[in-house]
Amino acid sequence: MAIKRRINDTDGRSALREWVNSLQAEASLPRPVLATAVRFTLEELASRAEGNSVEVRVPPFGVTQCIPGPRHTRGTPPNVVEMPADLWLRLATGKLVWAQALQSGQLHASGLRADLSAHLPLIEYP
């Protein structure tokens, strides 16, 4: 079953491009643009790795469930990945690899299925 996308491809890629440009210029990004980039990449992950066994959280911007496996319905999920927006976007764009993110201390992953390395990067930027 395909996920329902809320952010169209053009808007999502535009927000992601703005985030990449802000990194290069060392400039701050407006919060709505950052939120769109995060939500777009979370939707991309959910569409590429459909499932309900892992919950990926990027507070305060979004959360998604992905990876095939046992479905979780109540309480705290057994497989959770949580990180700040900047770290998530670096992973999603290939600017950082999973092992580096784990060493950063900002990525929290729990559960047997909480390794997203096989699904990242989602969209690579130079």
UniProtKB/TrEMBL annotation:
InterPro entries: SCP2_sterol-bd_dom_sf, SCP_3. SUPFAM superfamilies: SCP-like. Residues 31-122 form the Bacterial SCP orthologue domain. This is Bacterial SCP orthologue domain-containing protein. It comes from Glutamicibacter soli. The lineage of its organism: Bacteria, Bacillati, Actinomycetota, Actinomycetes, Micrococcales.
